[in-house]
Amino acid sequence: MQGEVNANNRNFTNLPAGDGTRWLPVTQPGVRVGELPDGRMRINLGPSHPATHGILENHLILNGETIESVDIHTGYVHRCFEKLGEHYGYNQFLVCTDRMNYVSTPMNNIGWILAVESMMGITAPPKALVVRMIISELSRIIDHIICLGILGVDLGAFASFLYMFHKREDIYQILEKMTGARLTNTFCRVGGLEKDIYPQFVEDVKKFLKTFPKVLNETDTLLTKSRIFYDRTRGVGKISGERALAYGFTGPNLRAAGVDYDVRVSSPYMYYDQVDFDVPIGEDGGVYDRYLVRLEEMRQSLRIIGQLVNNIPEGAYHADLPHAYLPPKHKVYTSMEDLIYHFKIIMHGIEVPTGEHYFSTEAANGELGFTIVSRGKKSPWRVHVRRPCFWYYQAFPEMVTGGLLADAIANMSSMNVIAGELDC
Q1: Which of 149, 160, 378, 393 is the most exposed place for a label (fewest CB within 10 A)?
Q2: How far apart are CA 67 and CA 84, in angstroms?
Q3: pLDDT tops 50 at residue 309
């Protein structure tokens, strides 16, 4: 068979390969992947490639090992979360925020709940806020472990990956005991937490605080001063603070470029203005500086957690909001008033005041913001998510053009692009 065929809605071209035949996807109808007439190569870096971590598609033109141009494509995991948010109730939408940045799920949930609570003019009890902060910083550590561990693997440093993922599992054990789930936790509710902390929560967190610094220092020793790692990352994928701001960078990738911006400091929420921590800043915005910033941020997260874990307040883990927070099941069975509240929340949902509101938090990869437009119904009229990965992935072509193909792999890993945040 000659020419092009359609298989699963993808165009493929029959190209001779030695004594056999191979089928290669084409980037545009009639354009073949492979060698161009002038000797350059057109290749697909992803979506089916270990270094693209699933579903990131990049069309590259190579001149030898040098990248001459890049065309990025998003949309492979488009799940219409923003549109779903306009049909779900405010607590129900947590199943969507769970799946945006699925590496540090609780931070998405907390950001959404804080946006709704801010719009309703309510504040969760101190105990709920402190626990949310502890879980947020544990989630930040998980996210940075993923980023730095995978960066090491993509550059051949497998040992650091194993060291760090062992401790990542300890955090997942805490989350599983707390929420009953590992990845998609859904443990927040408007007004507080879904349930109280389990009896050994403080003990488990303290144990992690005691054991993780050793692993962090081992990773520092393995990578930071490794000549191979240094040569593969220093000065690679550089971006200036001005260009980073122009693209909409936030989070560690922006701070690595020398811009001192952290939502926890510039617009404090919960109790971040009452804890001591430093915001690490880089210089050239390259792979090595992004690595150093995230490494130090994990130490600062440990510092924040240490100030909180011994001071978790006593008392309720949710506010007294019978019109928004489901009553305990035993009260529903025994109290007519609680039965009525339960019925109204289940059938009519939580009614948020009419208006438009934006609220942002400092997620692991940067500023995570939620815009909510309410018309007083049980579901938002409009929802928009400012997901940090979507903005800085757009800079990928500029950061890798003119560099080597191997450097593009290191650059992508250090950016920590979470595909679930690209397409909401």
Answers
A1: 378
A2: 39
A3: yes
